[in-house]
User: Which sequence fits this backbone?
């Protein structure tokens, strides 16, 4: 593999380019009108224009991307995450064109891309499933009967897609029919598929995912877990590795289950198996993401591995670089996603220009970003500016260093989620490890609490400064008096 095209943009494109340079593989970037001056375009060995700013007219144009690959003699395509990364049709086209798709097979994508087929595949390997049904439900009356059997509250979930779309929490039978119609309508408009299923709602759920890797030689390993429970709109905002609640025994048990999920679909490459953990620390299979995750850096930080390099090596037909018994956890890592969002206004996008943009540096601080000062955050894509990733020898150290890095991060021109990240990392629920996916709902339903907390901190800081100043003044007065008493000038006057 001598030349790879990255069918993506922003920070993940830059991330892949870094590893390609390390491996002496030529890189090709693609860009839309909105990204013509983006860093990933400037850093790649070659760059090609693929269309207008909307993703449907650029980054999702499969045939345009493949045509450029043929012209440039590309050997492989790395899809990053989002866009075409889990598109089985695109993976098939890449292979048919004589190139390597750096990711799993189309068959594995299809099995795991549909939540119902994924459930059917993994249950043969005794992977724990949330109580419910593993078939599509279209009739509200049947859904009510199922809900009565498994007990309320229940979740109605779209079979296709993710990101919280087509998902509805139902507390009782009176509201189930309306909520099911809403879920079906949203699923139909978002994914072109209104198939839904019903499952038990897990109380106090924690979202724990296991990073997995498999090669075509039958080797499968897990690279431990990531805690992803701090979310807004069912989308992650802060991730960490390892989790604060997993015991070594539970980690091994969940890791083995994740490996079995890979075996259930003959998986190859990088993937993430997502689980829910309830208040009793029982875990249940949720879904599998057949790509590299946004939050993969925290796994890299605690394992010392380059996961993009592993992806490329597996795609070239090599065996996994390490066996399970050669892998271990070193320290703790936290990732704060820096979104251009207004946290006080429901995390709504706050698109604008980066008038000032200075990233933190220092001990064990890593920033994966896709912008430089003076650039606009486009309205056409996800509003993530960067990922702030910090490592520490333990969780307390990682939290302390992350807070310091947030203080040093300078962004002006738009609102970001940095203040929310600071609020979370200082919250007692987070520092104690006693939190779940309801963190935002429970502690941030009134966003002004964040600024109330900041005001309290400011008052404490001002009080502390005043105390120090008073101490300095008192000390200086005493020193001055002492000098006066012992000076010849004072003696002559006395």
Assistant:
């Amino acid at each position: 593999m001598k030349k790879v095209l990255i069918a993506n943009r922003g920070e993940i494109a830059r991330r892949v380019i870094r590893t390609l340079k390390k491996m002496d593989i030529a890189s090709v970037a693609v860009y839309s009108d909105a990204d013509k001056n983006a860093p990933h375009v400037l850093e790649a060995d070659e760059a090609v224009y693929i269309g207008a700013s909307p993703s449907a007219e650029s980054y999702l144009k499969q045939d345009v991307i493949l045509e450029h690959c043929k012209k440039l003699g590309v050997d492989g395509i790395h899809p990053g995450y989002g866009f075409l990364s889990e598109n089985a049709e695109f993976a098939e086209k890449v292979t048919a064109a004589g190139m390597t798709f750096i990711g799993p097979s189309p068959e594995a994508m299809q099995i795991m891309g549909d939540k119902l087929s994924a459930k059917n595949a993994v249950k043969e390997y005794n992977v724990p499933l949330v109580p419910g049904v593993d078939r599509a439900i279209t009739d509200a009356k049947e859904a009510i009967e199922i809900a009565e059997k498994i007990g309320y509250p229940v979740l109605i979930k779209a079979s296709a897609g993710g990101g919280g779309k087509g998902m509805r929490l139902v507390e009782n039978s009176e509201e189930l029919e309306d909520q099911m119609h809403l879920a079906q309508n949203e699923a139909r408009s978002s994914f072109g598929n209104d198939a839904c299923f019903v499952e038990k709602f897990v109380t106090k759920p924690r979202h724990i995912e296991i990073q997995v890797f498999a090669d075509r030689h039958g080797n499968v390993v897990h690279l431990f877990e990531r805690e992803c429970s701090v979310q807004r709109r069912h989308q992650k905002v802060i991730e960490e590795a390892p989790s604060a609640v997993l015991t070594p025994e539970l980690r091994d048990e969940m890791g083995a289950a994740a490996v079995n999920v890979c075996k259930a679909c003959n998986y190859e490459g990088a993937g993430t198996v997502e689980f829910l953990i309830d208040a009793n620390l029982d875990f249940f299979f949720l879904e599998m993401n057949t790509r590299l995750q946004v939050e993969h850096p925290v796994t890299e930080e605690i394992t010392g591995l380059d996961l993009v390099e592993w992806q490329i090596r597996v795609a070239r037909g090599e065996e996994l670089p390490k066996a399970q018994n050669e892998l271990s956890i070193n320290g703790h890592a936290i990732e704060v996603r820096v979104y251009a969002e207004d946290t006080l206004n429901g995390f709504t996008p706050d698109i604008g220009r980066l008038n000032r943009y200075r990233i933190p540096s220092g001990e064990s601080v890593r920033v994966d970003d896709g912008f430089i000062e003076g650039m606009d955050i486009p309205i056409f894509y996800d509003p993530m500016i960067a990922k702030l990733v910090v490592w520490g020898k333990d969780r307390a150290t990682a939290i302390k260093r992350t807070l310091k890095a947030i203080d040093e991060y300078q962004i002006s021109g738009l609102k970001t989620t940095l203040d929310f990240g600071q609020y979370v990392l200082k919250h007692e629920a987070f520092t104690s490890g006693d939190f779940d996916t309801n963190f935002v709902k429970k502690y941030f339903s009134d966003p002004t609490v964040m600024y109330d907390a900041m005001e309290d901190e400011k008052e404490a800081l001002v009080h502390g400064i005043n105390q120090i100043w008073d101490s300095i003044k008192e000390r200086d007065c005493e020193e001055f008096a002492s000098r006066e008493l012992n000076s010849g000038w004072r003696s002559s006057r006395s």
